[in-house]
């Protein structure tokens, strides 16, 4: 997709682009936020068992665990 420099466009060109975008957006199917939130919640809960952000990383598979400690006498 080509890059468009908005500073180089005329006001008419900008208006045409805006109308085109609005025509696309008006065709989109709209959903209730409550329905979307329920679906997102169900999706998250379905993958909760495999999610490392929820259950954490086991010590033997954690690449960031400390390899050794420092002992000061």
Automatic annotation (TrEMBL):
Annotated GO MF terms? G-protein beta-subunit binding
GO CC terms of this entry? heterotrimeric G-protein complex
Q: What is this protein called?
A: Guanine nucleotide-binding protein subunit gamma
Q: What is its main location?
A: membrane
Q: Which residues does the UniProt record annotate as the domain G protein gamma?
A: 5-73
Quaternary state and interactors: G proteins are composed of 3 units; alpha, beta and gamma.
Species this chain originates from = Eleginops maclovinus (Patagonian blennie)
- Its domain of life reads Eukaryota
